[in-house]
Design goal:
The chain is α+β, with helices and mostly antiparallel strands and about 170 residues long. It contains 4 helices and 7 strands. It starts with 13 loop residues before the first strand and ends in a 10-residue tail after the last helix.
C-alpha cells in the first residue's frame, strides 16, 4: 500500500509501509460463517416471522460489530517508517495517528510465536525515549525483514552508514 506523498516532508521517503497481517481477519470470518450457519439452522426449525425479525436484527448488529468493524480497522490502519519518522495511522471517518521521529527511537525488536511463524508474521516492538515507552505492532508480515530495514535506517541516521563502517 502506498503512503500518501502529500503527508511526507521535503526530502522524506518511505522505507517500509505495512498493515497487520490478514490473519487478523480469521476471527471475523469465523464469526460470519457461524452466523450464516446459525441463521440457516434456525430457519429450518422455525417459520416464525417474529423470531426471524429478532434474529435478523441481532445478526445485523453482530455483523457490524464483530465483522465489519474489525475489517475496517484492519483496512485503515497502516504502519509506515520513513527515513525520518515512524507513523501509525488509523481510522475511516475519525482518524488518529502517532508519529515518532527516528532519532528518538532507541530500539526495534521483534517477537515471533509458533502461530506467527506459520503465517509469516510477528510482533514488532518500537522503543522510544518518551514516557510512553514502546509501541507494539502485532501481526506484522515479514517482521524480520521490516526490523532489518528499520534497523538499517536507524544505523544510517546515527551516522553509521560509512563505507568502512567506522573501523
Amino acid at each position: 500500500m502506498a503512503f500518501p506523498t502529500k503527508l511526507l516532508n521535503e526530502g522524506e521517503h518511505v522505507v517500509v509501509s505495512t498493515r497487520t497481517h490478514p490473519k487478523a481477519l480469521i476471527g471475523p470470518v469465523l464469526v460470519l460463517l457461524l452466523l450464516v450457519v446459525g441463521i440457516i439452522v434456525l430457519s429450518r426449525y422455525t417459520d416464525s416471522t417474529v423470531m426471524g425479525a429478532i434474529v435478523g436484527a441481532a445478526s445485523v448488529g453482530i455483523v457490524f460489530w464483530w465483522v465489519l468493524r474489525p475489517f475496517v480497522d484492519w483496512l485503515t490502519t497502516t504502519y509506515t517508517f520513513t527515513n525520518r519518522r515512524f507513523i501509525k495511522r488509523s481510522g475511516f471517518i475519525a482518524k488518529e495517528g502517532r508519529t515518532i521521529p527516528l532519532n528518538r527511537i532507541s530500539g526495534v525488536d521483534f517477537e515471533i510465536g509458533v502461530i506467527d511463524r506459520i503465517f509469516g508474521c510477528g510482533t514488532l516492538v518500537v522503543s522510544d525515549a518518551s514516557t510512553d515507552g514502546s509501541v507494539e505492532l502485532s501481526d506484522i508480515p515479514d517482521v524480520e525483514k521490516v526490523q532489518l530495514q528499520v534497523s538499517h535506517e536507524l544505523h544510517r541516521l546515527a551516522g553509521g552508514d560509512r563505507r568502512d563502517d567506522g573501523a
